[in-house]
Amino acid sequence: MTERINSVRDLEVYQIAFDTAMQIFQMTKSFPLEEKYSLIDQIRHSSRSVCSNLSEAWRKRRYKAVFINKLSDASQEAGETQTWLEFALKCGYITKQIFDKLDEKYEHIFAMLITMARKADSFCK
């Protein structure tokens, strides 16, 4: 039996995205200060935007097209975060192991968002 989803926070994809954004926040604390207004701000913003777009999708699920659009926005932010992670790797701010772990989490998030979009009718009122 599946549990009822009462809030966006009950969605597994939201929980994974939120936890990953918090990992990125902690990780970026050790980045060089000269990256403050470029890489740090950008990667924190895009990782958090995955969650905020999921929240907007959840609140707008009365309208299927808008719900799917917000899921698409969440996917775009996840893709942007992957790009910033790649920059962090190439700049030597994170290890390949950390990159691979976070990149894999975002691939999982993509898959979950795609599934939600395909099954939008089950989420939309």
Distinctive features:
single chain, 125 residues, mainly alpha, de novo design (two linked rop proteins), 5 helices, elongated
What is the CATH architecture descriptor? Answer: Up-down Bundle
What is the H level of CATH, i.e. the homologous superfamily? 23S rRNA-intervening sequence
Proportion of residues in extended strands: under 5%
Total number of strands: 0
Shape: elongated
Return the average pLDDT rounded to an integer.
95
Helical run tally: 5
Supply the helix-strand structural class: mainly alpha
> What is the end-to-end distance?
21 Å
Alpha-carbon Rg, integer: 15 Å
- Relative helix content: over 70%
User: What number of domains?
Assistant: 1
Write the CATH fold name: de novo design (two linked rop proteins)
